[in-house]
Amino acid sequence: MEEYERNIHSHIEEHGCSVTSVFDAKGDEPPFAYSIGIAKTAMAPELIVVGLKREIGHWLVNEYNRRVKAGERFVPGVLYLGFLEGFAVQFGPVAREHREEYMRSATWLHGGPDFEALQLIWPSTAGVWPWDQHASEWFRANQPLLTGDSR
What we know:
Organism: Luteimonas colneyensis
Pfam families: DUF4262 (PF14081)
Structural class: alpha+beta
Number of helices: 6
Protein name: DUF4262 domain-containing protein
Strand content: 15-25%
Distance between the termini: 41 Å
Shape: globular
Largest sheet: 6 strands, mixed
Helix content: 25-40%
Radius of gyration: 15 Å
Protein backbone atom coordinates (compact mmCIF):
# COMPACT_ATOMS: atom_id res chain seq x y z
CA MET A 1 0.00 0.00 0.00
CA GLU A 2 1.32 3.44 -0.96
CA GLU A 3 1.80 6.17 1.67
CA TYR A 4 -1.05 8.30 0.27
CA GLU A 5 -3.36 5.27 0.54
CA ARG A 6 -2.32 4.76 4.17
CA ASN A 7 -3.01 8.47 4.79
CA ILE A 8 -6.51 8.13 3.30
CA HIS A 9 -7.26 5.14 5.54
CA SER A 10 -5.86 6.97 8.57
CA HIS A 11 -8.05 10.05 7.91
CA ILE A 12 -11.13 7.85 7.44
CA GLU A 13 -10.46 6.07 10.75
CA GLU A 14 -9.87 9.33 12.61
CA HIS A 15 -12.47 11.64 10.99
CA GLY A 16 -14.91 9.41 9.12
CA CYS A 17 -13.54 10.56 5.76
CA SER A 18 -10.55 11.89 3.93
CA VAL A 19 -10.79 15.03 1.78
CA THR A 20 -8.93 15.48 -1.48
CA SER A 21 -8.60 18.94 -3.00
CA VAL A 22 -7.62 19.25 -6.66
CA PHE A 23 -6.63 22.42 -8.47
CA ASP A 24 -5.14 23.22 -11.84
CA ALA A 25 -1.92 25.20 -11.35
CA LYS A 26 -2.54 26.96 -14.68
CA GLY A 27 -6.08 27.90 -13.64
CA ASP A 28 -7.67 26.42 -16.76
CA GLU A 29 -9.96 24.07 -14.84
CA PRO A 30 -12.04 24.87 -11.73
CA PRO A 31 -10.77 23.56 -8.40
CA PHE A 32 -12.73 20.89 -6.57
CA ALA A 33 -12.74 19.00 -3.29
CA TYR A 34 -14.34 15.66 -2.54
CA SER A 35 -14.81 13.13 0.22
CA ILE A 36 -13.39 9.65 0.42
CA GLY A 37 -15.02 7.22 2.83
CA ILE A 38 -18.30 8.83 3.90
CA ALA A 39 -20.27 6.15 2.05
CA LYS A 40 -18.54 3.51 4.19
CA THR A 41 -18.52 5.27 7.57
CA ALA A 42 -21.82 7.18 7.56
CA MET A 43 -23.73 5.20 4.93
CA ALA A 44 -24.36 8.48 3.10
CA PRO A 45 -23.27 9.59 -0.38
CA GLU A 46 -19.75 10.88 -0.94
CA LEU A 47 -19.60 14.63 -1.67
CA ILE A 48 -17.90 16.84 -4.25
CA VAL A 49 -17.74 20.65 -4.34
CA VAL A 50 -16.59 22.30 -7.57
CA GLY A 51 -15.42 25.86 -8.22
CA LEU A 52 -14.57 27.17 -4.76
CA LYS A 53 -11.19 27.89 -3.19
CA ARG A 54 -9.45 24.89 -1.65
CA GLU A 55 -10.06 25.99 1.95
CA ILE A 56 -13.77 26.58 1.40
CA GLY A 57 -14.31 23.36 -0.53
CA HIS A 58 -12.41 21.39 2.11
CA TRP A 59 -14.46 22.98 4.90
CA LEU A 60 -17.74 22.26 3.09
CA VAL A 61 -16.88 18.57 2.70
CA ASN A 62 -15.98 18.36 6.39
CA GLU A 63 -19.21 20.15 7.38
CA TYR A 64 -21.22 17.71 5.25
CA ASN A 65 -19.36 14.83 6.91
CA ARG A 66 -20.13 16.25 10.37
CA ARG A 67 -23.81 16.61 9.53
CA VAL A 68 -24.26 13.16 7.97
CA LYS A 69 -22.42 11.54 10.90
CA ALA A 70 -25.03 13.25 13.12
CA GLY A 71 -27.77 11.58 11.04
CA GLU A 72 -28.77 14.37 8.67
CA ARG A 73 -29.50 13.39 5.05
CA PHE A 74 -29.62 15.63 1.99
CA VAL A 75 -32.09 15.37 -0.87
CA PRO A 76 -31.34 16.74 -4.34
CA GLY A 77 -33.21 19.91 -5.25
CA VAL A 78 -33.93 20.99 -1.65
CA LEU A 79 -32.42 24.20 -0.24
CA TYR A 80 -30.16 23.78 2.81
CA LEU A 81 -28.75 26.44 5.11
CA GLY A 82 -25.65 26.38 7.29
CA PHE A 83 -23.06 25.58 4.65
CA LEU A 84 -22.37 29.03 3.17
CA GLU A 85 -23.12 32.05 5.34
CA GLY A 86 -26.06 33.99 3.92
CA PHE A 87 -26.78 31.50 1.13
CA ALA A 88 -28.67 28.25 0.75
CA VAL A 89 -27.07 25.39 -1.18
CA GLN A 90 -28.55 22.46 -3.06
CA PHE A 91 -27.34 18.97 -3.82
CA GLY A 92 -27.42 17.03 -7.06
CA PRO A 93 -26.53 13.40 -7.79
CA VAL A 94 -23.17 12.85 -9.45
CA ALA A 95 -23.33 10.74 -12.62
CA ARG A 96 -21.25 7.56 -12.71
CA GLU A 97 -18.88 8.86 -15.41
CA HIS A 98 -18.15 11.98 -13.36
CA ARG A 99 -17.42 9.89 -10.26
CA GLU A 100 -14.73 8.10 -12.28
CA GLU A 101 -13.36 11.34 -13.75
CA TYR A 102 -13.38 13.63 -10.70
CA MET A 103 -13.44 11.36 -7.64
CA ARG A 104 -10.53 9.04 -8.40
CA SER A 105 -9.47 8.27 -4.83
CA ALA A 106 -13.08 7.56 -3.81
CA THR A 107 -13.38 5.31 -6.87
CA TRP A 108 -10.20 3.54 -5.74
CA LEU A 109 -11.52 3.08 -2.17
CA HIS A 110 -14.86 1.71 -3.37
CA GLY A 111 -13.29 -0.56 -5.99
CA GLY A 112 -14.97 1.32 -8.85
CA PRO A 113 -17.51 4.09 -9.50
CA ASP A 114 -20.52 2.20 -8.14
CA PHE A 115 -21.07 4.33 -5.04
CA GLU A 116 -23.47 7.17 -4.36
CA ALA A 117 -22.18 10.73 -4.60
CA LEU A 118 -23.69 14.19 -4.38
CA GLN A 119 -22.47 17.53 -5.68
CA LEU A 120 -22.94 20.50 -3.37
CA ILE A 121 -24.23 23.24 -5.70
CA TRP A 122 -23.88 26.87 -4.64
CA PRO A 123 -25.42 30.06 -6.04
CA SER A 124 -23.63 33.21 -7.14
CA THR A 125 -23.60 36.13 -4.71
CA ALA A 126 -26.60 37.45 -6.68
CA GLY A 127 -28.53 34.25 -5.92
CA VAL A 128 -28.21 32.84 -9.44
CA TRP A 129 -27.85 29.06 -9.86
CA PRO A 130 -25.68 27.55 -12.63
CA TRP A 131 -28.78 26.36 -14.53
CA ASP A 132 -30.53 29.76 -14.40
CA GLN A 133 -30.96 31.63 -17.65
CA HIS A 134 -29.07 34.62 -16.20
CA ALA A 135 -26.03 32.58 -15.13
CA SER A 136 -22.86 33.83 -16.79
CA GLU A 137 -20.73 31.52 -18.93
CA TRP A 138 -17.88 31.99 -16.43
CA PHE A 139 -20.11 30.87 -13.55
CA ARG A 140 -21.33 27.81 -15.47
CA ALA A 141 -17.78 26.88 -16.49
CA ASN A 142 -16.50 27.37 -12.93
CA GLN A 143 -19.18 25.10 -11.45
CA PRO A 144 -20.05 22.43 -14.02
CA LEU A 145 -22.98 20.29 -13.02
CA LEU A 146 -21.91 16.69 -12.65
CA THR A 147 -25.43 15.27 -12.68
CA GLY A 148 -25.32 14.14 -16.27
CA ASP A 149 -28.26 16.39 -17.11
CA SER A 150 -28.54 20.10 -17.77
CA ARG A 151 -31.64 20.67 -15.60
